[in-house]
Write a structure and sequence with these properties.
Blueprint (H helix, E strand, L loop, with lengths): L2 H11 L11 H4 L12 H18 L5 H13 L11 H16 L4 H16 L9 H9 L5 H17 L4 H7 L5 H4 L17 H5 L5 H9 L3 H11 L4 H13 L3 H14 L4 H11 L4 H17 L5 H20 L5 H8 L10 E3 L6 E3 L1
Antiparallel strand pairs: 1-2
Length: 364
């Protein structure tokens, strides 16, 4: 084994957390690195460069949502060995952070704030068209595009910005076409009600946000804020409800899961997506309890008058299969059950959401 291979093995065994310093009370008071970006530019630039390079050189189909998931996974699993990260984009981001963290360590809280900042920037580009708004923007800004690709991106960007009433000065700022100090000479740039004053989709378009638009902002909430938000808005955002419960499962916070389930169920009866995800949560931990949640899902589905018959039938078929599996499952050896369940743990585990189209079913 050569030296490079040996170093790689050693590197893969340690975690990002081992490169971080303990938090101090003062550090913990920091809510955001906004307006202090320069102090963290070394880490921000590594993340941004990794994303742009991966998109431009490796995968032109990667979306903003993919980037969000990668950053979220890195944040949640920073205590795991680097070898834990299997997806290509996650690997690129993690590897890019090792050297700067070795040379100038951040505290644990600062590290999460850096990731949160990038998530916030992604959210601040969500008003643009397409599923790759941020990915294409950062690739453009960092100069990866060819001259032809750059001109094409600028034309598309300016065309859409014009529809939104964005001024020329604002476009130049968003495209990083001027030095920062020059922007403040533009009288039109920060007029009241201008786009740069509020970049949230609600304020810009005057329409309701979708779960996709909210994903980043929701993720930046702490667990208590998520809990309260979903109690008020959960039925409108099925994906966020399920994601929240599954995240609590990964943290093994079953007490919180039960508290959320009890309060949510009291407020919104027969919300079958929650029943379903509760079954998934307990399918390994307590199969009997999981079976009862799936049975509750069946009962709730039957009561949904707005669900097309075809949707009900497909849901019932899947639920019947799950219940049958749980009845037969105890015959399997425990160690085999654990091994098999770890494969593709998060694939296809979420509830179905009925579409307005009669025959369209989407696994969330």
């Amino acid at each position: 084994m050569n030296l490079d291979e040996n170093n790689k093995l050693v590197e893969d065994e340690f975690s990002l957390s081992e490169l971080l310093m303990p938090d101090t009370p003062m550090i913990k008071e920091i809510k955001s690195i906004y307006e202090n970006e320069y102090e963290y530019s070394e880490y921000l630039s590594e993340i941004e460069y990794s994303i742009a390079e991966y998109y431009y050189k490796e995968n032109r189909k990667v979306t903003d949502k993919d980037v969000i998931k990668a950053l979220k996974n890195i944040k949640q699993n920073r205590d795991n060995p680097i070898s834990f990260f299997e997806k290509a984009l996650e690997k690129e981001i993690v590897k890019s952070l090792v050297e700067p963290l070795e040379e100038s360590p951040l505290t644990d809280h600062e590290f999460t704030l850096v990731l949160d900042y990038v998530l916030w920037v992604i959210d601040n580009r969500s008003w643009l068209e397409g599923k790759q708004a941020y990915v294409k923007w950062i690739t453009y800004v960092l100069g990866f595009f060819s001259e032809e690709e750059e001109k094409k991106y600028e034309r598309q960007f300016k065309k859409f910005a014009s529809k939104m009433g964005v001024s020329g000065a604002q476009v130049d700022m968003l495209l990083m076409k001027k030095d920062a100090e020059d922007f403040f000479d533009e009288e039109e740039l920060f007029e009241e009600g201008d786009l740069l004053e509020v970049l949230g989709p609600d304020e810009i378009f005057g329409v309701d946000s979708t779960a996709d638009n909210l994903e980043t902002g929701f993720f930046l909430m702490d667990n208590n804020e998520k809990f309260d938000y979903l109690l008020e808005n959960g039925p409108d955002y099925v994906e966020l409800v399920q994601s929240y419960v599954l995240d609590l499962m990964e943290m093994e916070d079953f007490e919180k899961i039960q508290d959320f389930y009890k309060k949510f169920n009291q407020k919104y009866e027969d919300f079958y997506p929650l029943y379903f995800v509760m079954g998934i949560v307990y399918i390994e931990r307590d199969p009997t309890l999981a079976k009862s949640y799936f049975e509750e899902t069946l009962k709730a589905v039957e009561k949904q008058e707005e669900l097309p018959k075809s949707s009900k039938y497909e849901l019932k078929q899947n639920l019947d299969s799950l219940i049958k599996y749980l009845i037969e499952e105890p015959a399997e050896k425990p160690e085999e059950k654990v091994r098999s369940s770890k494969k593709g743990k998060r694939k296809g585990v979420s509830a179905k959401k009925a579409s307005n189209k009669d025959d369209e079913i989407e696994w969330i």
